[in-house]
Amino acid sequence: MNADLGSPRELTGLQRRRALYQPELPPCLQGTRVRVEFGESTTSIDPKCADIVAQAFPQTFGQKLVHFLEPNSMASDTQVIKEHPPIRVGVLFSGRQSPGGHNVIWGIHDAMKARNPHNVLLGFVGGTEGLFAKKTMEITNDVLSSYKNQGGFDLLGRTVDQIRTKEQVNAAMSTCCDLSLDGLIIIGGVTSNSDAAQLAETFAKHNCKTKVIGVPVTLSGDLKNQFVETTVGFDTVCKVNSQLISNVCLDAVSAGKYYYFVRLMGGKASHVAFECALQSHPNMVILGEEVALSKLTLMEIINKICDGVEARAAQGKYHGVLVIPEGLIESIPEMYALMQEINNLHINNVTEDEIPSQLSPWAAALFKFLPPFIRRELVLHQESDNSAQLSQIDTEQLLAHLVEEEMKRRTKEGNYKGRKFSSVCHFFGSQARGSLPSNFDSNYAYVLGHICVQIVATGLNGYMATVTNLKDSTNKWRCAAVPLTAMMSVRRHLRGPGAVPIGRPVIHPSPIDLKAESYAVLREKASSFLLDDFYRTPGGIQFEGPGANTKPITLTIEDQDYLGDIEILQDYLNKVRTILKPGCSREILKAAISSMASVNDVLKVMSAPLNAELPLYHFN
């Protein structure tokens, strides 16, 4: 572990200016008194998996949705937290660095000290390994002073990013008991919050008093569902990458002779690439979700890119910019199958050097077809969650190589008569992870920190701090606590030929919704992006002035206020109950029964799985 973690930083002028920025809070969190309203019991995000999740999490499944409101009017199912006995809380980073993470801790600290100055906040140095080893530092205002509104995770650092094995879970429980913690707050993405759910279940089973809470912080934006509209860090990372892409676009059109292949970090889902495409308008963007839905092969993708190159050449344009997500390679059917075979060999402790000789005949043939640099990268040791190291696989170079070969073939056969194809490749990965967080991420993270303290004070275990209606101003944000099990589902995976499907309840990465309005916007503009050099220059992150409070385009386009919609539904149900009290006329009762039957039929149809497939948008 780095001995410098948590040490005071020497700040530049810009950093000092940012450290003075005070994040905004919604009205419900601005005082020490908060109204807690308990909603309905929750199910799993996929109702078909509810029984499986309930069996795996008997202690924490089906808990109620909890809203945090201003302490004005009181309902029968609400309580106001007035007394604030001293509490002890631990916090750790578990996941890749994401801008805004420090502000979660700052929000926790300020909320705890406002409630009771004797509260103690302990940070685990070195992430999960620090948790197992009981390595802590007390978080004070002096410690935080040079980390407020700053990038990175270097206040506490991070390590293995997993609390999964029996030994790890027992070590975590031992630490929490020995330190007499009332709450343990885990800051991270889908994997870390899945681990938090399992930890909460184990703590409840063993009557450990520590309440486990998750916070949605990940740059990839893939922890997204009805309750979580976006994650801390996503806005900042997309703004930084969009500036880099727009710079590349202007460089391409200036030189007029290169195609830039840009791969963006973001895990298995394509949220970062999608948002950056909307912000910077590259000529082409290929999303993994499109490829998976249309089952495009590697060579079909290459041909589509080459068709785009030819279409631009017909207009006298020999430059362009293509953006892809790092998870694209796993979305290509034959590449996914190859990577699954390699994964199985890793699980069976086959060494990297021996893997090629252990592949099945078809996989060996595909492996041999690929360039040597891709072969080396595909067999690299896996991540902590047994997945491929996507950040280490140069998919953009693979595409550029194959496109160049195909353009040579088309030229030789006389089908392409333009200039020679030339490419330049980039991978924008960790460049954005340590950036100063945007105002939106600074505010969002700080608010989530405050919500965590309310969750601990309410005595809730196995919950995630959430905020909805994020596209609106901060004073209209809705603050809540959602059971982690409500976000879980089971997906079945085949681990090799003839293998039995296996699966366990976890929070899965959420792919792009190809039925969403934001995707329709991208499809509508695809042809213009391809041919018109409709480049957009968002510039660097603005902290003051007109552009300081912009939010992700995908967030502002969609209508995602799920908690607000639940409130509207509840209001209608209350009105119906009022009208249909015993004694109402038979006509009203019959009308209600008929209407309810129709609603029930409609909802049954809508709840059934859809088999319809959406076409991939085309370049022409």
From TrEMBL:
SUPFAM superfamilies: Phosphofructokinase. It is found in: Cytoplasm. Allosterically activated by fructose 2,6-bisphosphate. Pathway: Carbohydrate degradation; glycolysis; D-glyceraldehyde 3-phosphate and glycerone phosphate from D-glucose: step 3/4. GO terms for molecular function: 6-phosphofructokinase activity; diphosphate-fructose-6-phosphate 1-phosphotransferase activity; metal ion binding. Keywords: Allosteric enzyme, Cytoplasm, Glycolysis, Kinase, Magnesium, Metal-binding, Transferase. It comes from the Eukaryota. Residues 88-455 form the Phosphofructokinase domain. GO terms for cellular component: cytoplasm. The keyword Lipid biosynthesis does not apply. The keyword Aminoacyl-tRNA synthetase does not apply. InterPro entries: PfpB_PPi_PFK, Phosphofructokinase_dom, PKF_sf. One of its GO terms (biological process) is photosynthesis. Transmembrane segments: none annotated. Pfam families: PFK. Regulatory subunit of pyrophosphate--fructose 6-phosphate 1-phosphotransferase. Belongs to the phosphofructokinase type A (PFKA) family. PPi-dependent PFK group II subfamily. Clade 'Long' sub-subfamily. Tetramer of two alpha (regulatory) and two beta (catalytic) chains. This is Pyrophosphate--fructose 6-phosphate 1-phosphotransferase subunit alpha. The lineage of its organism: Eukaryota, Viridiplantae, Streptophyta, Embryophyta, Tracheophyta.
